[in-house]
Amino acid sequence: MESKAVQSNSRFDVVKWLVVFVLIAVGVVGNQYFSAESLLYRVLALVGLAIVAVFVALQTARGQRFATLLKEARVEIRKVVWPTRPELVQTTVIVVVFVLVVSLLLWGMDSIISLLVAGFIG
Q1: What is the reported pLDDT for 122?
Q2: pLDDT tens, 28-44?
Q3: CB 49 within 8 A of CB 23
Q4: Across all residues in the chain, what is the average pLDDT?
Q5: DSSP H/E element including 48
Q6: Please, is 57 exposed, middle or buried when counting C-beta atoms within 10 Å of its C-beta (0-12, 13-18, 19+)?
């Protein structure tokens, strides 16, 4: 009994995904077809179609899993301990100094190798 429900859901999911792709295609073709119209109207129509497409996509099993993933990611982001401004500035300065030192070393080695090659070639 449960497998029939899953198959039924998956059939409806296929239909929903087809609706999503049709909405996207309508947006692309409609934007091209109405290219003479104002950009504002075309953008508003595309935003409206995108909202409807996302709403339909979120009604599928995969869309619901994606929504759950987004909610869990938001919870995890809130748990992150973000660096303070002084820590951020200090780390940035260290990275910039390190990059400058390495670039100077590479420039120096390149100059020495260029002089040696120029000396051998004559």
Answers
A1: 77
A2: 999 999 999 999 999 99
A3: yes
A4: 92
A5: helix 39-57
A6: buried
- Beta strand spans in 2-113 (E): none
Query: 3-state secondary structure string, the chain?
Result: CHHHHHHHHHHHHHHHHHHHHHHHHHHHHHHHHCCCCCHHHHHHHHHHHHHHHHHHHCCCHHHHHHHHHHHHHHHHHHHCCCCCHHHHHHHHHHHHHHHHHHHHHHHHHHHHHHHHHHHHHC
Provide CB contacts within 8 A for 57, sequence distance 6+.
16, 17, 20, 63
Please say whether the beta carbons of 58 and 67 come within 8 A. yes
**The two structure tokens encoding residue 44:** 């508003």
What is the model's pLDDT at position 11? 80
What is the total residue count of the chain?
Answer: 122
Which residue matches tokens 């420039």?
A: 107
